[in-house]
Amino acid sequence: LLRVLDLSWVKFEGGKLPSSIGGLIHLRYLRLRDAGVSHLPSTMRNLKLLLYLNLNVDKEEPIHVPNVLKEMIQLRYLSLPLKMDDKTKLELGDLVNLEYLSGFSTQHSSVTDLLRMTKLRYLAVSLSERCNFETLSSSLRELRNLETLDFLFSLETYKVDYMGEFVLDHFIHLKGLRLAVRMSKIPDQHQFPPHLVHLFLIHCGMEEDPMPILEKLLHLKSVRFTHKAFVGSRMVCSKGGFPQLCVLEISKESELEEWIVEEGS
């Protein structure tokens, strides 16, 4: 009769979650955050009433996730592992009730699975080298209720400049955007969501000063650059820019030598 089970930080013998987990058929909430698990049992397909599933396990080694999530059609919240083994192939297209999805990888799932997840409000996508960015963009276009979007990179995709394919202006409800993809310069302001409030840029390798573009985004309240988001030496915030900005974080930008803040910026 158990409804809620939190196994965070539990270390399992041999890295295997016991198959008896499948007997807890009334579970609504299962959390395995940072648990010592490298293999999930196929009996998890019996957990058809789950609303919340956090599989963001210990990241020491890749985890094998059997293709059983497709049967958990009641799920509202799903957090997938950041590292999954090469054998993991997930079908998620039937999870139409999802509102929160993190760890979605184009290496382990089809981007077209996103097409039907129209209730999504939070999405974190990990791009693989084989990702077709055009297909991903068209799938995301249907997610009109998105409020927060994270684009993460794998080591292979970090070599690819996605700048030319970046257009998210159709996300009218998007408030938060995190970009961890390579781009030599920031996209034009018209390519950003019109009501963007929070922007986090990491590992982008931008060579051109992004401030002349970002300061024109009228609703921005927080901007964060970190870990070589910007690799240029000079940054200028001009008069009248950033009319609503409350938070600006510039950290781990080792190439930055000069930052000019004009009066009235």
Give your account of this protein's structure.
The structure is a single chain. The chain has one domain (55-261): Leucine-rich repeat, LRR (right-handed beta-alpha superhelix). The protein has two helices and 13 strands. The protein has helices at residues 133-140, 211-214; strands spanning 4-6, 29-31, 52-54, 77-79, 100-105, 122-127, 148-153, 176-179, 198-202, 222-226, 234-237, 247-251, 258-261. The strands form two sheets. The protein has an eleven-stranded parallel sheet, with no helix packed on it. The longest helix has 8 residues, at 133-140.
Topology summary:
Blueprint: E1 4-6, E2 29-31, E3 52-54, E4 77-79, E5 100-105, E6 122-127, H1 133-140, E7 148-153, E8 176-179, E9 198-202, H2 211-214, E10 222-226, E11 234-237, E12 247-251, E13 258-261
Parallel strand pairs: 1-2, 2-3, 3-4, 4-5, 5-6, 6-7, 7-8, 8-9, 9-10, 10-12, 11-13
Beta-strand percentage? 15-25%
Largest sheet: 11 strands, parallel
Question: Approximately how much helix is present in the residues?
Answer: under 10%
The total count of helices amounts to 2
Order of strands in the sheet with the most strands?
1-2-3-4-5-6-7-8-9-10-12
CATH architecture: Alpha-Beta Horseshoe
CATH class: Alpha Beta
- By CATH's scheme, which homologous superfamily applies? Ribonuclease Inhibitor
How many strand segments?
13
SSE series: EEEEEEHEEEHEEEE
**Class by helix and strand content?**
mainly beta
What is the number of domains? 1
Separation of termini?
Answer: 59 Å
- If you average the pLDDT, what whole number results? 90
Inertia-based shape: elongated
Low-pLDDT runs: none
Radius of gyration: 20 Å
Fold-level CATH name: Leucine-rich repeat, LRR (right-handed beta-alpha superhelix)
